[in-house]
Structures are given as structure tokens and as C-alpha cells.
């Protein structure tokens, strides 16, 4: 276990890391939901946050900047080393623990966090059911779990737009939503499969938000041509995130689930 320490943090700084150009387009919907979850579970207090598979701290460091006590559990020592550098540069404290997300209760204790994040990880773990159960048991009663995972329909669109029509067709029939043997992503989700996973772990699933519905379809030059275009695309993503047809087409699906 390693721990990085920095200067004391302000209670409510602006969300600097989430506010920059293309990063903002890609993460605006997720931050919107995470901020609302924090308001619900924290109500302005500093709370315990665990980021399972938190990698280099793209979410963990801004959350520490907001004043929360953040622990990242990740299987990769290299990612944790990069997290330590990022936290030090930001002048915040983030605890870094090497381990498997499926072992969270053994690593950190059951009921040890108010908010547990698991972003872009369920696609890669050995056993998504077991990992979701571990997330559920690590959050305190009344707390929430933020799960972000790859959406399967989006990859069919992206492969077709790139001219890989056979790959796009395979995505539609493959049980894991993969486009072929060389697809680097082991599995993708639908709104229903992600929600079912949370329900099976004893959680109460909230609404699924679609993330990057349009952002990955428009040329980046258009999306980032100027501040006005970026703002308009962010507004479009926020407006479409819960649209019942459009959210299924999102590159990522974001589920906030609750422990009663
Ligand atoms: C695509 S990155 C996502 C990083 C971060 N959550 C984000 O959204 O920016 C996936 C991360 O999950 C980690 N990872 C993969 N399998 C894991 C597991 N079973 N337990 C813990 N971490 C895992 C990887 O090392 C990597 O840092």
C-alpha cells in the first residue's frame, strides 16, 4: 500500500480537471451525475470515496481536490505510480492501494465508503458479477456506486462508420458485444445488462445515462473548434444523456446505483 500526501485542500474548489476542452466533452455527463451523487450522500461534508480501477486518477484527483478522502484500488503498479505523481502535482492526498477490485471488502473493509466509483473497468475484470458484489459490499448503507462501462451498440456504429461492416454485424450477435477476435475489449454492456448486474448484487439501480452519444461521431475539429462549439456539444450531450433511444447508442453507459 502506498500513500501520497500533499498540501491541505480547499473544501469546494472548481472542478479544474473536468473543465478542460475535449476532456470536458467526454466527461461532462459523468461529472454531472457524480456531483449530484456526492450532494446526495455528502450534503457538503467530506466523505470517503473509493475508486476501483481508478488508474492514473482522472476522477480520483479532482475528487480529492474537492476535499474528499479518496482511495484508489488498481491492479497496475504503473497506474498507481502515475496517480501518485498526479496527486502530488495537484497538491492533494490520495491513498493508492494495489489490488483486484473483486477483493475490495478484504482490502479496505465492508461498508468503508460513501461513494464507490468503478469507471471503465467492468469490461476487463475476470468476473463482473463478483466485482459488482464487491463494490456493493464496500459501500455503506445509504451510499452510492457509480459504474461507467462500454456500450455495445456504439461500437457497431463506430465500426460501420469506419467501413468495417462485418465487424459491425458481429457486434450485434456476439453475446459479449465484441466485433471479432482482435477486439481488445473483452465485453460491452447494454442499459439492461448493466442494470441487471447491479440488481443481482442487491443494489437499487438508478437511471442509466448515455455518455459520448455524439462526441465520438463528430469530427474532433468541429467539436473543439472554439469554446462556443464545445459548450454547445456539452449541452447537447447533457440533454441527450437520458433520452430513451439515444442513450443506448452512447459509447459509455453510466449507472448510479444505491445501497439501501
Ligand atoms: C481503462 S482504465 C480506467 C481508469 C479510470 N477508472 C478512468 O476511468 O479513467 C482501467 C483501469 O482498471 C485497472 N484494472 C483492470 N482490471 C482490474 C481489476 N480486476 N482490479 C483493479 N483494477 C483493474 C487497470 O489497471 C486500469 O488502470
TrEMBL record:
Keywords: Methyltransferase, Transferase. Residues 1-20 are annotated as: Disordered. GO terms for molecular function: S-adenosylmethionine-dependent methyltransferase activity. GO terms for biological process: methylation. It holds the Pfam family Methyltransf_11. The keyword Methyltransferase applies. The keyword Cytoplasm does not apply. Residues 51-145 form the Methyltransferase type domain. This is SAM-dependent methyltransferase. It comes from Actinomadura craniellae.
